[in-house]
Amino acid sequence: ETGVTQTPRHLVMGMTNKKSLKCEQHLGHNAMYWYKQSAKKPLELMFVYNFKEQTENNSVPSRFSPECPNSSHLFLHLHTLQPEDSALYLCASSQDVGQGHEQFFGPGTRLTVL
Amino acid sequence: AQSVTQLGSHVSVSEGALVLLRCNYSSSVPPYLFWYVQYPNQGLQLLLKYTSAATLVKGINGFEAEFKKSETSFHLTKPSAHMSDAAEYFCAVSDRAGTALIFGKGTTLSVSS
């Protein structure tokens, strides 16, 4: 595997389910990110991790719970979601946060909440 | 505070025509600027980035962008559009304070034959 991988690619869940999204980067980067991409809305930064420590949480509802056990893996735990949470969830990584370091994106997980 | 404005949510061109996608930024310090492309059902892919080494930046797939400080712009161009260029394009800015990228709302490029 190379680059940034995300699993699953598609997920359908009910509002009472609990599920997790997984992201893995094979680039040796120190920073990882979760974004939400909804139709007709700008890309929304959700969380930023740098050296496994969360450095940004952009007022994300508590039904989204991130976990970063090491610099290569990032999870997004989901519970009691709402239909408006249906979106493409993108994971990205970069060498470090900011300072001109480009972000490398995974293919995303298409989430549908029924 | 940083921000990015992409003028035109949708641009349509004919195959072989010039592509021009506009991006204006706001930053209190010299910024880093990026253009990303997203094809359907895929993540974002870096096209090019400006890091102050040169004002004209060449990227992949024949795209280039010019940093114009006086106009606070970083427009993306390609001399001749190809059908495979149809995608969504995002401009992004980062300042030197170590913050994450700020993305524009995106521009959808359509290419007709």
Task: Describe what is shown at a glance.
With 114 residues, chain A is mostly beta strands. Chain A is built from no helices and 11 strands.
Explained architecture:
The complex is a heterodimer of chains A (114) and B (113). Chain A is an all-beta fold and 114 residues long. In chain A, 0% of the residues lie in helices and 56% in strands. In chain A, strand 5 and strand 6 form a beta hairpin. Chain B has 113 residues and is mainly beta. Chain B has no helices and 12 strands. The mean pLDDT of chain B is 91. The chains are: A mainly beta (114), B mainly beta (113). Chain A binds chain B through residues 4, 6, 33, 41-43, 45, 48, 56, 90, 92, 96-100, 102-108, 110, and chain B through 32, 34, 36, 41-46, 49, 51, 90, 94-101, 103-106.
Question: Descriptors for this entry?
Answer:
A: 114 residues; mainly beta; seven-stranded mixed beta sheet; four-stranded antiparallel beta sheet; 56% strand; B: 113 residues; globular
SSE topology sketch:
The complex is a heterodimer of chains A (114) and B (113).
Chain A: E1 4-7, E2 10-13, E3 18-25, E4 31-37, E5 44-50, E6 53-57, E7 64-70, E8 73-79, E9 87-94, E10 104-105, E11 109-113
Parallel strand pairs in A: 2-11
Antiparallel strand pairs in A: 1-3, 3-8, 4-5, 4-9, 5-6, 7-8, 9-10, 9-11
Chain B: E1 3-5, E2 10-14, E3 19-21, E4 24-26, E5 32-38, E6 44-50, E7 56-58, E8 64-68, E9 73-78, E10 87-94, E11 102-103, E12 107-112
Parallel strand pairs in B: 2-12
Antiparallel strand pairs in B: 1-4, 3-9, 5-6, 5-10, 7-8, 8-9, 10-11, 10-12
